[in-house]
Amino acid sequence: MEQVRDKGPAGTAAGSLDQCTDPYLRCAFNGAAQTALGVSRSALLVHSPQGCEYLVNNAFASQECDYMETVTLCTKLCVDEIVHGGEDLLARTIREAKDLPISVLFVLSACGPEIVGDDIVAVCETVQPEVKFRLLPIECAGFRGSQYDGIDIALDTMLRKLVRGSGEKVPGSVCLIAPHANANPTWPADLAWVRQVLSRMGVPVVATLAHRTPLSEIENAASAEASIVLSHDAGQKAADYLFATYGTEQVCRGIPLPIGMTNTQRWLTALGERFDALETAEEMVSEGERMVMETCRRKWPMARFLYRVPAAIVADATVGIPLVRFVTEEMEMTPRLVALYSSQRQVRELLDRELESLGLSPGVVLGTDVYRTRKCLADARPRVVFGSTIERHASEGLGIPYVVEVVRMMRQFRLIDREYFGYGGILNLFECVQNEWTMAWRSKEKRYQAKW
Amino acid sequence: MENDFIVFHGDLQQLLEKVETGEMIPRLQASHAPMCKFFTAYYVISGIRHVVPLVHGPTGCPLYMSDFVRTRECCETRGVPLEPTACTTLDESHVIYGGEGKLLEAAKEAYAKYHPDLIVILSCCCSGIIGDDVESIAREAGKLVGCPVLALRSEGFGGDFRSGYEDAFKLIMDLMEPPETKRKGTINILGARWGPNPTEFTWDLDEIERLLSDIGIRVNAVIAGGCTVEQIRHAREVELNASWCYDWGQKLGDLMQERFGVPYSRTGQPYGPTATKEWLLGVARPLGMEEKALEVIEREMREVEPELAYMRQALEGRTAVIEISEFPGPIRALSLARMAEEFGAHPVVINVHPYTIKERMPSIKYILETGVNPEIILTKGLFHLGSFRSSKETEDELEEIVRGYDNVIFFGNSGRFPPCPVVNLTLMNPAFQPQYGFRGIKNIAALVRQALENENLPRSRLFRGMLYGTSAR
Questions:
Q1: Helix (H, G, I), strand (E, B) or coil at B42
Q2: Which of A45, B111, B126, B128 sits CB 3.0–4.6 Å from B155 for a disulfide?
C-alpha cells in the first residue's frame, strides 16, 4: 500500500508502509499469463512448480479462452530442478509440445527458476529450430511486481520481439492496448464497445494487445497511426514504447475511460477530434444519451432515490476513477471514500483532477489492501459501496446497507458479457444498483405462515 | 475388451504394482498438474478458526486462496466471516537481500491488525530458495506477540500436493498439549481442510456427526475443518481419533498414535451399508459403545430398507463403470466400487490416475487390505498433453468402454455421455447430499432411480457441444 490521504470525512491516518498486507492484486506472473493468453492460436508453457498453473487458470478464465483451442502446459518443477537447474526439463517439455497446431508458444518463468538462474531465453533460442511455431520467452517471475507490472512486462516483450517495424502506417488507424487490465469481470464487452465506436467513426483497428489477437496483428502493430490505452492500471508503458519507437501517437490520454455520460461524451469527443469524426461522435453522444434516458423512463428503475447518499468506491483505477463521476453525477451520490488497487503516478494525477473538477474531497487510498479497505469503510461509514464480493463481506458489521458488486464478482455469473463503457454500460451499472437495491428491500422473513 | 486406446487393464493390485515399480509413471511432463505443496498446506492451516496464514512470498501465491477459498468457498457458501490472507509481498529487492526482517515486522503487524489466536508463516518458492529462516523468525515473533507463531516450509517445488497436507497436519500437532484429563466417549475427526468450516463437503461430516451423536459419542475437534486453537490444544484428551476420509486422516492419525498414544480408528469412507457399519463400529468398539452403536445401526437400517431393496434390484448383475478421476476424488471412486459390489454389480473403475495411486499409496494399500480390488482401466486420454480439463478424448474412450460391456450403469457425473444410465454423483448438487452414511444411501438410491427411470430421455446437445465441441458424437 503506497498512499493514504486524509481529504475529508472518510479521512484515515497517514499510512505507513505496511509489511503485512492482504492484497487485491495478483503477481506479475499472473498478469503476463493474462496477456499471453490474449493471443489466438497460441499456447502457454509455464516454467514453474505446478501450483503456478492455478494462476494461469485464472488468467485463462479472465481472457475467456476456450480449452478446446488453447493449451496450457507446465514444467512442474520440483526440488531437483531448483537444485540442479530446470533448463533441460524446459527444453524437453517444449519438444513434447512440438506438434501443437499453434503459431506461437509463450514460455513464462515463475519465481523459482528465475532465482536459480534458469535462462529461458537461451533454451528457447536453442530449441527454436526444432519446432514449427515461434517461441517467445517472457521473464515474469511473481516477485517482479503486481499483475499490472506483469501485463507491462509481457506487452513489452511482445512489442520488442514480435513487431515488425515496416514504417508503413495505415491512415487513421489505431492499436488498442491492455483491454484486459480492467476489473469489469466481463471486460471483453468494453473492448467490443470500443471497437464498435471506432468502426462507426471509420477508424480501423490494426492490433489489439491483447484479446483473441492473431500473431500477425501484433507483428503489424507499428502500422497503427495512434494508440488507445484501455486501462488506467497498465498499458501506458506499451503506448510510450510505440510512440518512442514508431511515432504512434496516443489518443485519449489523461482522460477517464468512458464510464458514465460525461466521461463517455469526453472520450468520444476526443476520438472524434483526432480522427476527424466529430460529427459522428456528436451523433453517438446524442443518440446514446437519448437511449439511456428513454430506457430509464420506460423501465422506471426505483433505485434513483439515493440522492447524496454517502458512497465508497473500491476498485481498480480503470473502473474506479470513471465511477467517481458516474456516482456523483448520474447516480447523485456523494463519494466519501475512493480506494483503488493501484497507485501509479498517472492514477494519482488523474484521480486528483477528477476530484478537483467535481469539487469532491473524499478519503483516498491508493494501492489499498483488504485490511485498509475495511478500516477505511469503518471510518467513512458510507451507505453504498461500489466494489467486489470482498467488500460485501468486509463491510459486514459496519451497517452498510448496499454493496454494489461491479468488479471481481465471485458468484454473479454472466453468460453474456456486459460493458461498463458507453451508454449500454450506464444501463448495466444502473442495473447492478437496482438489483442490489431490490435485494436489500426483499423481506428476509415472513411475519406468519400462510394457511395453504 | 482390448482397444488401442487402453494403456492399462487389470485390477487395482496390479496397477499398484506397476506404479510402485515405476512402470506407470506418466511420460509427458506437461500432463496433469495438481496443486502444489503450498496450496495444500494452506488449505489445512486455513481450517483453523482465527488463524492468520502469513504467506512469505509475492502476491500471486495467496491470491488463489484469497479469491477461491476465502471469499468464494468460505464467505459466500459456508457463512464464514472474512478472514485475512496475509502476505509479505516479496519483491526483487527482498529476493536479493533477504526478507527475514520484513517477515518479523509482518508477523508483529499481523497480530496487531487481526488479533489472531495463531499465526502460521507459510514459505513459498521465493522465500524457500533465498533461504529465509522462517522457523527462527517464527520463534522470535512468538516471543513478541500474544499468540503462538508457527512456521511451515511449504515451497511449491518442495513436494507434491500430499506433502503440503501432511506437513501442515504435522505442524498442528505442535499445538497439542499434554492431556490434563481423558474425556470419555470423545473423539477427534481428522483429515479435514478447506477454510474454517467443517471439511470440504459439510453434508458428509454432518451425517457422521449425527450418527455419532445418536450413539452418544462427542467430537472434540474436526481437525482442521473449523476447529479452534483451544480444541487443538485439548486434542490429546480424546479416547480415539477417527477420520472423515481414511486417506486424509491417516497420516495425522498414525502420527498421533505413535507420538501421543492416541489410538486411531482405521476405517474407509462410509459409502453404503457395510462401510457405514464398519465406520461406526470402528469408532464405537474401542470406546466400549458397541451395543448402543448396533442399536443405532439397526434403527437406521430399518429406515433405509426400501432403498436397500431398490439398490439390490437395480444393480444386481449390472456392470458399474465408475469414473471419478478428478472430482470428487479417486478414493470416493474406490469406495463407490465397494458399494456397487455390495449390491451385486461388477465394478469397473476407469481412469484413476497413476499419480493419484502414487500419492495415496498407504490408503490404496489399506483399501486392498479390506478386500476391495476392482477392475481398473486407464486410457490414453488420461495422459494427454496439457492441463486436466474436460477432454473429448477421454469422453470418446469412455463411450467405447461402455459399449464393450453388457447391462452397464455409469457412476460419475452428468458431464459424461455414455450410452447407458448415468448416475450423477457430482458433489456440486446439494439436493442429493450427503453421500456418506444412511442418509447417503437414500440419496444415492434416489440418484440411481433418477438414472434408470429417465434412461431414454434425450441428453443435452447443448452441454455436450459445450464440453466436447460441436463435432462430438
A1: helix
A2: B128
Nearest CA in chain A to B386: A73
Q: For position A430, what pLDDT does the model report?
A: 93
User: Would the pLDDT of A367 be above 70?
Assistant: yes
Check A97 against B385: CB less than 8 A apart.
yes
Beta-carbon contacts of A405 under 8 Å, excluding residues fewer than 6 positions away, are A387, A388, A389, A391, A392, A412, A432, A436
Q: Is residue A294 part of a domain?
A: no
pLDDT in tens, B210-230: 999 999 999 999 998 889 999
- CATH class of the domain whose range is B183-303: alpha beta
Q: What is the mean pLDDT of residues B414-428?
A: 90
Please state, rounded to an integer, the average pLDDT across all residues of chain B.
90
Q: Which residue of A has its CA nearest to B94?
A: A143
Instruction: Please report the pLDDT score of residue A143 as a whole number.
Output: 96
Q: Are residues A185 and A237 located together in one domain of the fold?
A: yes
Q: Which 65-124 residues of chain B touch chain A by CB within 8 A? A: 66-67, 71-72, 75-76, 81-82, 84-92, 94-95, 102-103, 105-107, 109-110, 113-114, 124
Same domain? For A103 and A134 the reply is yes
Provide CATH 3.40.50.1980 ranges for chain B: 37-159, 183-303
CATH superfamily placement of domain B37-159: Nitrogenase molybdenum iron protein domain (3.40.50.1980)
Query: Are A279 and A212 members of one domain?
Result: yes
Length of chain A equals 452
> In angstroms, what separates the C-alpha of B66 from chain A's closest C-alpha?
9
Same domain, A356 and A279: no
* B163 interface with A at CB cutoff 8 Å: no
Give a yes or no: residue A449 inside a domain.
Answer: no
Q: Which residue of B has its CA nearest to A410?
A: B72
3-state secondary structure B224-274: CCCECHHHHHCHHHEEEEEECCHHHHHHHHHHHHHHHCCCECCCCCCCHHH
Q: What is the pLDDT of residue A407?
A: 95
CB contact under 8 A, A92 and B29: yes
Q: Do A73 and B30 touch (CB under 8 A)?
A: yes
CATH value at residue A416: 3.40.50.1980
- The reply to whether A451 falls in a domain is no
My answer on whether A410 and A382 are in the same domain is yes
Domain holding A124, by residue range, is 28-145
Residue A67, min C-alpha distance to chain B (Å):
7
Considering its fold, how many domains does chain A have in total? 3
Q: What is the mean pLDDT of residues A60-85?
A: 91
Residue B435 burial by CB count (10 A; 0-12/13-18/19+): exposed, middle or buried? buried
Q: Distance (Å) from the C-alpha of residue B233 to the closest C-alpha of chain A?
A: 27
ipTM field: 0.92
Do A277 and A315 lie in one domain? The reply is no
Considering the domain architecture, whether residues A384 and A351 belong to the same structural domain is answered as yes
- What average pLDDT does chain A have? 93
